[in-house]
Amino acid sequence: MPAASASWGGDDMGRHSKAVAEFWVTIREIEERKRQFEDWAADLPDDQKRTLHRAHALKRQAAIEAGRFYIPKRPDYLRNLTCGARTRSGQPCRMTALFPNGRCIWHGGKSTGPKTKAGRERALENLKLGRLKRGKSWD
Ligand SMILES: [Zn+2]
User: What pTM was estimated for this model as a whole?
Assistant: First the structure.
């Protein structure tokens, strides 16, 4: 019997295969912890899931902005997460297409305008351009 087919964890295991085995144990532990987290997250109320949704959206956004190859995929426990805002009929909103803030296109709240100095300048430029196009002078 060749040494290569010896049972895992045997005494005749080389240092390298021991390191490989330990690596796989670590991977399995991480996956196990991840699975436990996902089980835990799946039972959370929607309000807390929305917090997780925000965290996921930020991570995703960061990965896209950094041009990373791996974009985190939407975890299963966030599937069918609804907007949940109170609607005019009194029922919670059932939209599932959510923005990073955890609300749908109708319930994110109004924009509060550009935040940065550059953004404000850009907005002012666009305002001037629009007025010029419509034949109104700015000054
Ligand atoms: Zn909504």
Answer: 0.60
**Contact predicate 98/53, CB 8 Å:** yes
84 CA distance to ligand 1 middle (Å): 6
What is the structure's pLDDT at 102? 87
Compute, in angstroms, the gap from residue 121 CA to the centroid of ligand 1.
31
In angstroms, how far is CA 31 from the centroid of its own chain? 19
CA–centroid distance, 42 to ligand 1, in Å, is 21
What distance in angstroms lies between residue 101's CA and the mean position of ligand 1's atoms?
11
- Quote the pLDDT of residue 79: 87
Q: What residues does each domain of the chain span?
A: 14-110, 111-139
Q: What is the pLDDT of residues 33-57, one digit of tens each?
A: 999 999 998 888 888 899 999 999 9
The torsion region of residue 22 among left (phi > 0), alpha (psi -120 to 50) and beta comes to alpha
